Amino acid sequence: MLSPLSKLPPNAKVGVVGGGVSGLMFTYFLSKLRSDIKITLFEGEKRTGGWINSWNTADQNGASVMLERGPRTLRGVSDGTVVIMDTMNDLGKSDSIRCVEKYATANRKFLLGPNDKLVQVPNSFGSFLKFATSPLSKGLFTGIAGEMFRKSSSTPGKDESVRTMLNRRYGNDFIASNLMSAIYHGIYADDISTLSAQKTSGKVFYTELKHGSVLRGSIKEYIRNRFGKKQPETLSGCLKLYQRAFNKDTGALLKLSNHLKKYPMLGFVGGLETFPKTIRKELDNIRNVEIVTGSAVTKMYKDSKNSTMSVKLSTNERIDGFDHLRITVTPQILSTLITSTYGDLIKDLKKVKSNTVILINYYLPNKEIIRPEIQSFGYLIPQSNTNPANILGVIFDSVIEKNFKSFNIDDANPSRLEVSSSGQSSELQYTKLTIMVGGHLLNENGKTKIPAEATCLADVKSALETHLNVSREDLDNGLWVYTVAKECFPHYFIGYKDWQNKLEKTLLTTYDNKISLGGMGFAKGPGVPDVIVDGLQDALKLK
């Protein structure tokens, strides 16, 4: 949350709404910080972990296979990732950590051009030349060359769309349409024409505000870092708070942070869900924590007489006496928990719509169909492509898994694996893909139109034939799994940060500082590390 929170009284009773990774980690932090507090976590599904779902199934031959039906990797450079890996180490699971090195094949990335040809994002002089002669580079070099000489916003500090900001800074729409729209498809599953620049592109937004030009600000930062007085290495502000609160060794934490920055991607043996499963197991063994699954919170109430909060469950059971409620569901779901007494608050929360993403997993045993020259993390599709299948991007899971190496917190040299994170031999020939479909591309006239499974799969197969130059026979012979992640990404509309500030203050006033907000709708960003840092910071405010 952006807002301050009140300290919890001794022997307080806390309810946590939502058992995704945000709710789990908030519960973990608070239980470690305050052993006197009784915490009850409520999750409507039978399982915890939220959108992180490493699903174990069998292929057509009866052999076991793990498919990621949600997020699969973490960024090594993030503070949240440092906290995750340190926590896994504390819980004796450091041997499950896997990493991808900077120069690994899996760290290559591609974009799909308007001509349906894959073009590598440059990471060498040769790939730069190929990119420079592709349709995706149109307007890039002239846009960058003139950026410093273009006027800054006529309304400094006022939010606008990402596309408007990019077009103003670079003088054309090609950079937005060919490049940045693809990146935002991958991160937010959303349209840069309607996304808040202040919320989703804060570095560019605030660099322009401070320096009048993104390039000018970047040059100044480079000169300061390259030629300025060298500062001693220290932990970030967030990690300093974590170190003090949990009595961590500063040197060891700094070493881990620096070590993780070397790796663009990290994961776990058994898939990313190994992490929330480990946290859940630890919470199950903590006496002052109770986890209730299969019973969603349907309403929350303020008890003015006792100055506490109550919740009603989908079973119609009502539980009273909470000194604090932590809400980690989306703003849309939160609006349904509030009683009709607060109509204006409900209306305000309903301003935030959420995008639905269809995740399609493909697995073909005993054959590699991704050509060597395009083996990589995968590719994203920009808005300049006609994209009839409404694909946001394609992830090459098998390439990532075969590039994973074991990670030793105390060793700077990761070792090659004989067995991949999915449990399969790294020498085996197989192909595993995840195709992300939809997001804002499913929205028509303010409503989400989800295609029939058969139609969606047929469209995706046709697209993969064209993009990857693979045979329909190989596609038909694979295992296909279709998952609808309904309303999984909040839409960060223009003015979102102002909306969030105002809403948080209204909620705190309405509920007498008895609630706090987490999850993707209220954290710095939608990523797993973002919501974990948010949970850590709020647990520290409450302790």
Structure summary:
With 543 residues, the chain is an alpha+beta fold.
Give a written overview of the molecule.
The chain is α+β, with helices and mostly antiparallel strands and 543 residues long. The strands form six sheets. It has a seven-stranded mixed sheet with strand order 7-6-15-16-19-14-22. It has a five-stranded parallel sheet with strand order 9-2-1-13-23. Strands 8-5-17-18 form a four-stranded antiparallel sheet, with helices on one face. Strand 3 and strand 4 form a beta hairpin. Helix 1 runs parallel beside helix 19 (528-542), helix 8 packs across helix 9 (214-227) and helix 10 (237-245) packs across helix 19. The longest helix is centred in the last third of the chain and has 16 residues, at 453-468. The chain is globular. The mean pLDDT is 94.
Radius of gyration: 24 Å
Topology, number of strands: 23
Euclidean distance between termini CA atoms: 15 Å
Global outline: globular
Major sheet: order of its strands?
7-6-15-16-19-14-22
Domain unit count: 3
Just give the CATH class of the largest domain. Alpha Beta
Question: What class, by secondary structure content?
Answer: alpha+beta
Uncertain runs: none
Q: Tell me about the largest β-sheet.
A: 7 strands, mixed
Percent strand: 15-25%
CATH topology of the largest domain: Polyamine Oxidase, Chain A, domain 2
Task: Compute the average pLDDT.
Answer: 94
GO cellular component, one term: mitochondrial inner membrane
Subcellular location: Mitochondrion inner membrane
Pfam family, one: Amino_oxidase
GO molecular function: oxygen-dependent protoporphyrinogen oxidase activity
